[in-house]
Amino acid sequence: MPEQSAGSRPTLEAVAARAGVSRATASRVVNGGAGVRQPLADKVREAVEELGYVPNQAARSLVTRQSGAVAVVIAEPEFRIFSDPFFEQQVRGISRELTLSDSQLVLLWVEGPDDYDRIARYLGGGHVDGALAFSLHNDDGLPALILSTKVPTVFGGRPGGGAEAVPYVDCDNRGGARAAVRHLVGLGRERIAHIAGPRDQTSAIDRADGYRDVLFDADPALTAQGDFTVDSGARAMAELLARRPDLDGVFAANDLMAAGALRVLRERGRRVPEDVAFVGFDDMVTVAESADPALTTVRQDIEGMGRLMVRLLMRVLSSEGAGAGDAPASVITPTELVRRASA
User: Which of 238, 279, 295, 319 could lock 324 by a disulfide, CB 3.0 to 4.6 Å apart?
Assistant: First the structure.
């Protein structure tokens, strides 16, 4: 392995030696190029982290004519971004992967339509090489606006509203929901309710579809609407108890709504899981493990999906630079039921 004096800047050659690959292979990984097998790419990224390698951005920009920055567009108001652990985990994954590509994260959040022009001007102004956008809503014009800027983009979550051709990273929302409801059925629960997420987000739609895949003849009174927040879960649970006090199982479309619903069940004297078995979705550990009782939930790898978004975007950028044809395929990650005390 090449010797490196104390305090000297790690070189690309040192990264290649640590990873056991050629300098060319290390260069392709560091600069977001395609054509490197995943195990080798992972070794290079590990070597970059271990050595603290920092590429010469000025030199790379002259060669690639890229800014070295990626915009992360979150289609939610500021209070949601800083109060929902989902966004923290996904941005952490994005940030860690961008660091390995020596790219700067630029965070843009969208309070509402008044922000659209600002977002479009920034994305179209040459400030970033690409964009990652998530928490998109079907009934607004943001996805189309982002695409109109011609900035290479990867979506977090399956997009709707005519943007389906854009590469995206999502989890198996529908399959995970089916697993949750089948688990409740397997426990002998017969009146299983669903606390649904926003009707304008594909993740919530897919999870509701998964619920209906298993309980295709469920009473409509057993479904109540939420918006992925704690308070909405509490309101939905109160509505369900008023309509169907005999319910004995609940599947909530995310862990935050589950936390609010569990609070209401405690206040109403319903024992979980004895009286009502409960399953959430996400496995945000800070929420699921601190719930009372600890929440059985469907796990999606939120941080890992953030990393995958960056890797997919780097492939998009690489394919454009090489004049390649079709964009990389979208990625659907598996889900897993994590059993705890609530069901």
Answer: 319
Q: Is the dihedral of CA 250, 251, 256, 257 positive or negative?
A: negative
Q: Whole-model pTM?
A: 0.78
**Pairs from 138-144 (Cβ < 8 Å, separation ≥ 24):** 138/200, 138/201, 138/202, 139/200, 140/75, 140/113, 140/200, 141/113, 141/116, 142/73, 142/75, 142/110, 142/116
* Tokens found for residue 262: 């569990």
- Across the chain, mean pLDDT equals 87
pLDDT of residue 81: 81
Highest mean pLDDT among 134-138, 155-159, 207-211: 207-211
Question: 132 and 156 in contact (C-beta within 8 Å)?
Answer: yes
By three-state DSSP, how is residue 38 classified? helix
> Looking at the predicted structure, is the pLDDT value of residue 64 above 60?
no
First to last CA, the chain: 53
- For residue 148, the number of C-alpha atoms closer than 13 Å in the C-beta half-sphere is 12
What are the percentages of helix, strand and coil residues in the chain, rounded to 5? Answer: 45, 15, 40
